[in-house]
Amino acid sequence: MESTDSSTGSHHQPQLPPGFRFHPTDEELVVHYLKKRVASVPLPVSIIAEVDLYKFDPWELPAKATFGEQEWYFFSPRDRKYPNGARPNRAATSGYWKATGTDKPVLTAGGTLKVGVKKALVFYGGKPPKGVKTNWIMHEYRLVDNKTNNKPPGCDLANKKSLRDLQEE
């Protein structure tokens, strides 16, 4: 999330070395954070909060973040609209997140292996189909099921958690 209001942001900044910047690439987010989080492997640094994003409006989320001033990252469960369906539920408190554009593949640095998918979502106030578009944008990252990732049988990594990068333009 990007915000023009400098008064928003986290109240709980973790202890990080001087000059630390968190500007990960899409590949780094998927491989070093999301994949490790899903596999219950320790993260390089604990600066991504776990929040059910759909229980809040986007302007409430900066206070829930562990780190960030203009952009905030969250791990969030992926809710289903119907119990037996694949369609995600993206309703929030006073509106909904609407997918926009096409899903973008997240590839390894060599560009040979698809490790994730990045989807852009825009927040609309109100109820569909008459919602009012806002300046809040969220990027959702999901893992893909590669046969070479050695996950345990029956473990659906793509549906367990996803990583969200929220911005206000």
TrEMBL record:
Keywords: DNA-binding, Nucleus, Transcription, Transcription regulation. Residues 16-160 form the NAC domain. The keyword Cell membrane does not apply. It holds the Pfam family NAM. It comes from the Eukaryota. InterPro entries: NAC-dom (IPR003441), NAC_dom_sf (IPR036093). The keyword Transferase does not apply. Residues 1-13 have a biased composition (Polar residues). Residues 1-21, 148-169 are annotated as: Disordered. Gene3D superfamilies: NAC domain. Residues 158-169 have a biased composition (Basic and acidic residues). PANTHER family: NAC TRANSCRIPTION FACTOR 56. This is NAC domain-containing protein. It comes from Solanum tuberosum.
